[in-house]
TrEMBL record:
It comes from Paraglomus brasilianum. It holds the Pfam family YEATS. Transmembrane segments: none annotated. Signal peptide: none annotated. The keyword Coiled coil applies. This is Protein AF-9 homolog. The keyword DNA-binding does not apply. Residues 8-148 form the YEATS domain. Keywords: Coiled coil, Nucleus, Transcription, Transcription regulation. GO terms for cellular component: chromatin; nucleus. Residues 166-214 form a coiled coil. One of its GO terms (biological process) is regulation of DNA-templated transcription.
Amino acid sequence: MATPNQRRTKGVTIVRPIVYGNIATPLPPRKTQETDHTHKWTVSVRGVNGEDISYYVKKVVFKLHETYQNPMRTIEQPPFEISETGWGEFELAIKLHFVPESNEKPVPLYHNLRLHPYEEDGTILSANKNKPVFTDPTEAMYQILTQHNSSSTLPPKTAPNQPYSLQAEQEELKLIEQTYRKVQEQLRQYKERMDAATNELQQVKSELERLRAK
Ligand code: SLL
């Protein structure tokens, strides 16, 4: 007979919002000279509003860039985070594993760690929101999730212990929009130059044909 961690709660969808991202601060120039590393960074997976997610998350596996020693890092209890120093830009693969009795498959997440500062003090903050969705959760997972209330929105303002906020999200969106507009403008300029070049080419071709015909 099927047990609660095999049977599925049909027709039910449960969503648990999480925040994952990184903060990075510049290293002193002396350190950078010695190691080429430009920043100290921390990547973390958290519940929204600092909610403890360990009642359903068993462990988080962070896969760092292959240039790091032991790039697979497993964190088995909160805070689910890794701190390192480094440089450049790379994609971190993050895998959420759920408590074994839930019998739910791990959820993969991806985060781009980008150590090129754009804030004035050189601090970098980048966060993603995601909502692991459990469709037809196992009965065991259904029990685990519904025994805990979960908040579903980000706090309005950024604070030292809460860098992920609606405010930070708005600021990030504004930056994306500005960059998008800049790229559009550059595209427009390139297109103008290309049109002019095409015109010129056309004129040279007609001139050449005219000379040949003579
Ligand atoms: C880039 N494609 O050039 C990337 C590679 C690799 C970053 C970035 C390792 C630090 C260490 C590190 O920061 N790697 O030496 O442990 O932007």
